[in-house]
Amino acid sequence: MSGLTNVVEFTPTTFSQITVTSSSATLASLCGGSIIPAGAKHAVFHPEGDVRWRADGTDPTADIGLVMKSGQDTVFENQPSIFDTMELIASGDTLVNVHFFK
Q1: Rounded to two decimals, what is the model's pTM?
Q2: Is residue 6 part of a domain?
Q3: How far apart are CA 6 and CA 83, in angstroms?
Q4: Each residue of 59-94: pLDDT tens digit?
Q5: Domain total for the chain?
């Protein structure tokens, strides 16, 4: 968790493994709707394959969207609103480990 600048100040809440597919889906739907804890402000994403994402209300595609690189942590600090709007897509079934913090 080297990406979190003040990890000792964060309280771990939920860990989830989600499968991102070639169809764009919201983070909430991929997590089953109940995995994102109330009050979560931070998250670490660790994909096992490249995943594209957007949080502007537009679906990512195979060519458009920001990339979460395979095997690298993508960290969101103090961004709770992004969890409600984030859409993800991959070229095939891709496992992503997600850990939420307060």
Answers
A1: 0.85
A2: no
A3: 20
A4: 999 999 999 999 999 998 887 788 888 999 999 999
A5: 1
